[in-house]
Amino acid sequence: MEIYLDNSATTKPYLPVVKLMVYNMKNFFGNPSSLHAKGIMAEKLIKKAKNQISEVLRCSPNELFFTSGGTESNNLAIQGIVRANRGKHILSTQIEHPATLNTLKYLESIGYEIEVISVDSDGVVVLEEIENKIKEDTVLVTVMHANNEIGTIEPILKIAKLIRRINSNTYFHVDACQSYCKIPFTVDELGCDLLSISSHKIHGPKGVGCLYVRGGTRVSPIIFGGGQQKDLRPGTENVVSISAFGLASEISGKNMLESSKKMRNLNNLLRKHILKNIDNVFINTPLKNFVPHILNVSFKGVKSQVLLNHLDKEFIYVSSGAACSSRKNKPSYVLGSIGLSPDLIESSIRFSLSVFTTIEEIERTILCLTKLVPKLRRIGEL
Amino acid sequence: MKSVILLKYGEIFLKKLNRKFFEKRLLEDIKEKLKRCGSFNVTQFQSTVFLEPTEDNFNTRIAIELLKKVFGISKICVAFYCPKEIEKIKSLAFEVLESRMNEKNIKSFKVETVREDKNFFLNSMQINVLIGSFILEKFRGLKVNVRNPEIILNIEIRKKCYVYVQCIKGLGGMPTKTNGRALALLSGGIDSPVAAFMLGKRGVEIETIHFHSYPYTSERAKEKVIELLNKLSEYLGKMSLFIVPFTDIQLALIKNINKKYLTIFIRRYMMKIAEKIAIKNSMQSLITGESVGQVASQTMESIVVTDNSVSLPIFRPLIGMDKNEIISISRNIGTYEISILPYEDCCTLFVPKHPIIKPKLKDVIEIEKNLEKENTIKEMLDESIKNSEIISSV
Predict the structure, then answer these.
(1) How far is B261 from B359, CA to CA, in rounded Å?
(2) Contact, B13 vs B44, CB < 8 A?
(3) Which A positions 291-320 lie with beta carbon below 8 A of chain B?
(4) Number of helices (H), then strands (E), in chain A
């Protein structure tokens, strides 16, 4: 039995999504820009997907632009805003995804002023810092909704209100890749101008994402082409994946309350039993305001890579920190930001659940951990 | 202009009686390497290999890139040819030089002639003068500089006359599989692939072995070593990788041995397994990437203790090199980028904080005797060998 607990990295596509993709690929291969029937059919699929996503976000379908994924959505939002508007100052947080941080690093290299807000030990941004740092010249504030490593949910609406109060010209972008369809929200409840979401985190295919841009927001394109998607994101649309993203959104959206509750219960069970069965563990995910699918734990004295491999041998798939950063084998900056010591960072494991996770899987995971962690600690001490 | 690739030998030309054998191996290596470049004829005469495309779509640019990875070649020259008539040689020399001058502003040159056909009516000096003065007439502003010319116009009088201006440095060394077989230990780090490469360069047929400690190291560590294998085989030809499961032996050692000796014993048992596999597969030696003094397990004393564990010779071509020199070779051969992928060192679990730096052979042998008396470690070695996986390079 394989137990997949790396759903923050990516998720298994829903079966109806896979079937829809095969069907659409066979039957609707037209170019959505073509004027004939084949083209119109393809265009209809895109419209439908926009409707399905706008249904979840409660926005207008016209405010949605499809991209190649979360990374591109963040790039388009950040670079698009600063290119189209005045202001050289950008605010963000310490714990953003590399797609955001490295875009900002690039902008800094070409003359923008980037300031990074710190987070507290739960990973929550310090609101006073935002308040103090927004200035006349601030063109953009970009903050993630839920952190991909530790699961903390940021107080987005509070930040939005702060921004409105201090500088009504400042735009607000939210990276919602880890929260979309995991916890209920609408764009108005968040109060953002732009919002990034990704398909493969919600049981859709990889290679497609979406950027919500509130009507009236000025954004410049970052790639140029044949005029598709109101020229903001040209290029022939990835019809099959977009349509699948729409369906994945619809399914996830409909079941959100129920699946969210289920994941939260399993998450709590995992947390409770790890704490009960194993000594010297530290839960890095906060006790409240966290997304239901993420639990980050440090098993002190056991290198996360070693534990990960041993779980792998038991067909239990987890991640050490974020999948993107575990490739580079650098200690997680997110865990560093919440004040974790190097030995706890080195021993951190991220479990991330999905709607498919069962109680049996969680129980077996707890059993394996209870067996493995003391054994590996003994070997480490010898 | 019709072109041909001239390949100059490295050290092979020093050989006497067994030269034919080396030349045959070199031609086989060249044919094998270029088999996807289109069809060509390859012949050999007087320390030179002539590689002549026989179809128009032969890709010379890619062929040269591949030839740069063939051991035994010291120079790769793209030459043009004409009949051995002085007027034709003049006009070919002019054309060759002109096309080069169009790419680059050149101010000085010299002519260098090799006359392999001693019956030709002019000798080398005379040809140099004749062609040189012709060129001087044709190109205004161009001067002869015998000591330090910007460009050398090479003329070779053979069955035909060959003219070329550009030579690319080859790898040198000896053709593959001309000098015995050896088993190289690949850890996944920077040094070991360089060590394997260096003996491969001397014509040694190389096979490789890697010790895998899953689940203490990841599956990716294994994938990385396979990537190194494939990179090395671009030079060394088809080769195998023995992947030996080592976890159980390591755990047994951790349990039974004073931690400061751990690395020493891990190395001794790796050597013992490597030797068994080498002998079974008719290989005559082992190769490691050790460099004296690099880490605790590579002090003189540690190397002596490691050496003692087997009777086959262990070759350590990097023994006197600095890390920087090793890195520079590994960059040149393209293994560096693979070696620095981070999957290897996740297993610091097995590295003691304070390893013994100057182990005494007498003590080590004593410890090993006791260990083998009380444990089934010898059986474990055979078990590991039995369970090893053999992977071929692509």
Answers:
(1) 8
(2) no
(3) 303, 305-306, 308-310, 312-313
(4) 13, 12
- Which pTM value belongs to this model? 0.86
Query: SS3 letters for A66-119?
Result: EECCHHHHHHHHHHHHHHHCCCCEEEEECCCCHHHHHHHHHHHHCCCEEEEECE
ipTM for the predicted complex comes to: 0.79
Query: What tokens were used for B217?
Result: 């190291």
**A208 touches A321 (CB < 8 A):** no
Residue B371 token pair: 């260990």
DSSP readout, A201-234? Answer: GGTS-SS-EEEEE-TT-----SS--S-TGGGTS-
Closest chain B residue by Cα to residue A346? B346
**Interface check A26 vs B, CB under 8 A:** no
Give the integer Cα–Cα distance in Å for B271 and B278.
10
B125–chain A Cβ distance below 8 A for any pair: no
Four-residue CA torsion sign, B149, B151, B152, B155? negative
Q: Which residue has the tokens 């470690």?
A: B377
Locate B72 and state its tokens.
């035994």
CA angle (A121, A124, A126) in 5-degree steps: 95
> What distance in Å separates the CA atoms of residue A371 and residue B330, rounded to the nearest whole number?
42
Q: Please say whether the beta carbons of B226 and B380 come within 8 A.
A: no
Chain B residues touching residue A324 (CB < 8 angstroms): none
For residue B308, what are its two tokens?
Answer: 């003692």
> Which residues in A lie closer than 8 A to residue B218 (C-beta atoms)?
305, 308-309, 312
Residue B346 has its nearest CB partner, among A303, A327, A380, at: A303
In this complex, do B219 and A312 lie within 8 Å of one another by their Cβ atoms? yes
Mutation site for A-interface testing, chosen from B344, B347, B349 by largest number of A Cβ within 10 Å: B349
Q: Are B316 and B288 in contact (CB under 8 A)?
A: yes
Q: What string of pLDDT tens digits covers the 382 residues of chain A?
A: 899 999 999 999 999 999 999 999 999 999 999 999 999 999 999 999 999 999 999 999 999 999 999 999 999 999 999 999 999 999 999 999 999 999 999 999 999 999 999 999 999 999 999 999 999 999 999 999 999 999 999 999 999 999 999 999 999 999 999 999 999 999 999 999 999 999 999 999 999 999 999 999 999 999 999 999 999 999 999 999 999 999 999 999 999 999 999 999 999 999 999 999 999 999 999 999 999 999 999 999 998 988 999 999 999 999 986 444 444 557 789 999 999 999 999 899 999 999 999 999 999 999 999 999 999 998 876 6
Check residue A351 and report its DSSP letter.
E
E strand segments, chain A: 3-4, 64-67, 89-93, 113-117, 138-144, 171-175, 194-198, 209-213, 281-283, 294-299, 316-317, 348-352
Q: Which domains are present in chain A?
A: 3-10+256-381 (3.90.1150.10), 15-251 (3.40.640.10)
Q: Which residues of B touch A325 (CB under 8 A)?
A: none
DSSP letter for A191, please.
T
Cβ–Cβ contact A371 with B under 8 A = no
Judge whether A86 is closer than 8 Å to chain B, CB to CB: no
CA torsion sign, A143 to A149 to A155 to A156?
positive
Q: Is A51 helix (H, G, I), strand (E, B) or coil?
A: helix
User: Which residue from A140, A161, A134 is spatially nearest to A96, judged by alpha carbons?
Assistant: A140
Domains of chain B: 3-169 (3.30.2130.30), 181-392 (3.40.50.620)
> Which residues of A are identified as catalytic?
324
